[in-house]
Design brief:
The structure holds 2 protein chains of 2 kinds. In chain A, helix 9 packs across helix 10 and helix 16 runs parallel beside helix 19. Among the domains of chain A are: about 250 residues, Rossmann fold; about 60 residues, no CATH class. Chain A is built from 23 helices and 12 strands. Chain A is of the alpha/beta class. Chain B has 13 helices and 8 strands. In chain B, strands 2-1-3-4 form a 4-stranded parallel β-sheet, sandwiched between helices. In chain B, strands 6-5-7-8 form a 4-stranded parallel β-sheet, sandwiched between helices. In chain B, strand 7, helix 12 and strand 8 form a beta-alpha-beta unit. Chain B is globular. The two termini of chain B are about 30 Å apart. Classes of the chains: A alpha/beta, B alpha/beta.
Chain lengths: ~475, ~240
């Protein structure tokens, strides 16, 4: 997917001005925040369950290579083919080669963020393979000119029913409908023909399990089953960090994933797929492939951002993020939005083109509170900022101001008169209403807010005065 | 023998709202502590820490230790500054074993003001009074880094005439975020709008909180929207009745 991260500020501004989007984004807290809170409250021993799952993920990631090799051996033993891709481009090429090898012309896809990462649809279309997204949200985006998803589990959260009703009427050439079950049925009818004629099914992989060589998929619409069972070839594309050693590990993280994501105790569908159709099996693909993408992941191993690899892509951090709630996912400019994206995108793509992402956070800490994997997202964002500071990547004015402030804060002989002077100026500017509406050099503040200013001398002045009075008295 | 409390004023309150540390002094003295204010103190280093300037943060952390480690307690009328000191200094000092040792010795004696008034001073009455309803905003650092939640509510219940009316989403960030508020003023203000709406929906006369950064954000946005009546008060101001 093409990166737009450089345009964060401009895009955020557009999103804030989009009244319709602002209304649509309110669904997030109404649905996901409330849903998660209820699901977690109903889960006995959440903290212990979370600690145990974090520990299991840590164990897996500590010897990632060992578990990946085990996964490969077990999957191959059961007839699947495991392929490795260093870069997103390589991963897309591998899928195209699979399509060529098996002469596949029509692919149906279940939801996959890694496929967005590697720009898979475009690569397949370029190779004359017709791709159809079958997750309802992803389908909506595809027929809307291949719009990118704005959320990792709720790709069309930025759209409302009316917008989709217009889109369906326009695309399907049918009378406009606004009843959701009717709209869903209409999409289903379009997709049914695709399901039946497809020769390749593409999915992501929420996890891969080393001990059995399986791919685990978490979905809500049943389309995944059609993608993995009907076509001749099934290709699962996922990141190398998604490996879990055992089925027990899978059970442990699955207690948290749906609850954290949508507030469900378990998703409507949960598939563990092991190898292609065997002799005597009644269904399943003839060929099963698993494409495992590095795409920058292994560069995080053992480093300052290693904890990010635990991420299970539930989306809780963005659902609870005050910034995401206001600007939505598109403003972030790449596949992964919100706090997790603001760590991942610079990690995968470099800080040069992603300047704003680590900065555009209030560090309120709620993402860390709700993260089922206890990823210290605010700390990681701060570490990103540390790298930006050390590499002098921030704008000159900002660095200069910070340097000046830093010098003063370390030198009280300068700081104290400086504080007194600032107090005096602000008091003069504030007048009777005790607020400033336009402060030169601080327009980032005063363009949107008044600046309440002091009515009295600095505390230190007052306290020194008081102490003097006490001594005199 | 009175216990000695070192008051960490916080740099913002020193200039922008001196009534907050003044009220803190009054509360601590009324609870029979001897209050000391090291005059060379400046800032805990949070702006540097959140900007990724490790060297400045480290220098200010060491400065803090030099100035405050001799007191029986250190109290700050801010969850955000005390959060930086108590929760993040271990990270700041992680490569400095000597400083880390000195910090470990003082860490259990570091308190945010309301936490101190409830857990150490065991305050049972408040000198101030307030007629009417207030609502309380839980500032992020105090809440999530220091567990400040019940303490301010318990203290507010001591104020004669005051009744507390909780707002929707009282734990939601106000959008301040330090330099974030200036760098991304439009996003910050949009977040503040939700907070302001939740405050106004309670019909409370005042929103009370424990962090000046959030106060400036909320007050600044309320006034810009034309709300000149909803008061924005620090809990120390409410407890003493002095603003």
């Amino acid at each position: 997917m093409e990166s737009q991260t450089l345009h964060f500020k401009a895009r955020a501004g557009q999103k804030l001005a989009d009244q319709r989007l602002q209304q649509n984004l309110k669904k997030l807290s109404a649905k996901f925040v409330t849903g998660r809170a209820a699901a977690i409250a109903a889960l006995d021993g959440f903290e212990q369950i979370r600690d145990a799952a974090v520990n299991r993920r840590n164990v897996a990631l500590k010897t990632l290579d060992v578990w990946l090799e085990r996964f490969e051996a077990e999957a191959q033993r059961r007839g699947a083919t495991v392929l490795w891709a260093q870069t997103p481009q390589e991963a897309a090429d591998l899928v195209v080669q699979i399509a060529r090898k098996h002469d596949c012309k029509q692919a149906i896809k279940s939801k996959s963020m890694v496929s967005e990462e590697i720009g898979l649809n475009a690569a397949l279309e370029a190779a004359d393979v017709q791709v159809t997204e079958t997750d309802l949200g992803e389908y909506i985006l595809q027929i809307n000119g291949n719009e990118p998803p704005s959320h990792i589990i709720a790709p069309v959260v930025h759209k409302d029913k009316e917008e989709i009703a217009d889109l369906f009427a326009r695309t399907h050439h049918t009378p406009r409908k606004t009843d959701i079950p009717e709209m869903t049925r209409e999409a289903r009818e379009v997709l049914r023909a695709k399901f039946l004629s497809a020769d390749m099914g593409i999915t992501g992989g929420n996890f891969v399990v080393a001990e059995t060589g399986s791919v685990a998929l978490v979905t809500n619409e049943g389309n995944e089953g059609m993608c993995t069972i009907l076509p001749r070839v099934h290709v699962a594309v996922t990141g190398v960090e998604k490996v879990l050693p055992t089925l027990e590990d899978l059970a442990a993280v699955m207690r948290l994933l749906p609850r954290s994501a949508t507030g469900q105790t378990i998703s409507n569908y949960f598939s563990v797929l092991t190898g292609p159709r065997r002799e005597g099996d009644r269904d399943g693909p003839e060929h099963m492939y698993v494409v495992l993408l590095d795409g920058g992941r292994t560069s995080l191993v053992g480093g300052a951002f290693a904890e990010m690899l635990r991420c299970i892509r539930c989306g809780a951090c963005m659902n609870h993020c005050p910034v995401y709630q206001k600007i939505g996912g598109h403003a972030y400019g790449w596949v992964y939005p919100g706090p997790m994206g603001s760590v991942l995108t610079p990690s995968y793509q470099g800080l040069e083109s992603t300047q704003d992402l680590p900065q555009a956070a209030t560090l309120c800490g709620q993402c860390q509170v709700v993260c089922p994997m206890k990823i210290p997202l605010p700390d990681l964002l701060r570490k990103m900022r540390e790298q930006q500071f050390e590499r002098e990547m921030r704008p000159g004015m900002e660095r200069w101001a910070l340097r000046l402030w830093s010098y003063a804060a370390r030198h009280p002989w300068l700081y104290r008169p400086g504080a007194r002077l600032a107090s005096r100026i602000l008091r003069l500017m504030g007048g009777e209403r005790r607020r400033v509406q336009n402060l030169p050099g601080a327009s980032g503040w005063t363009a949107y807010r008044d600046l309440p200013v002091p009515s009295q001398a600095t505390f230190k002045q007052q306290f020194a005065q008081r102490a003097k009075g006490k001594t005199a008295g | 023998m009175k216990k000695r409390v070192g008051l960490f004023i916080t740099c913002l309150a020193d200039v922008m709202r001196p009534s907050i540390p003044m009220a803190a002094v009054e509360l601590l003295e009324s609870a029979h502590f001897e209050v000391h204010v090291p005059m060379a103190q400046t800032c805990c280093g949070q702006p540097a820490y959140n900007s990724g300037d490790h060297r400045t943060t480290l220098a200010l952390a060491e400065k803090f230790l030099d100035e405050f480690e001799s007191f029986d307690y250190v109290v700050a009328p801010s969850g955000s500054c005390m959060g930086t000191i108590k929760t993040h200094y271990p990270d700041v000092l992680k490569d400095q074993p000597d400083l880390l040792r000195r910090f470990a010795a003082i860490q259990p004696r570091l308190f945010e003001l309301t936490d101190f008034l409830v857990r150490v001073a065991h305050l049972t009455e408040a000198p101030g009074a307030f007629e009417g309803e207030v609502t309380y905003h839980d500032s992020c650092s105090g809440l999530r880094e220091l567990g400040i939640k019940q303490q301010p509510r318990q203290l507010l219940s001591l104020v004669p005439g005051l009744s507390l009316c909780e707002m929707e989403q009282c734990e939601q960030c106000c959008g301040f975020g330090g330099a974030f508020a200036v760098k991304y003023g439009n996003i910050s203000a949009a977040i503040a709008d939700d907070k302001c709406a939740n405050i106004q929906a309670t019909k409370a006369r005042a929103v009370v909180l424990g962090d000046l950064g959030c106060m400036m954000q909320i007050e600044g946005r309320l006034r810009r929207q034309g709300d000149d009546t909803t008061q924005v008060l620090h809990i120390a101001e409410v407890l003493t009745g002095k603003r």
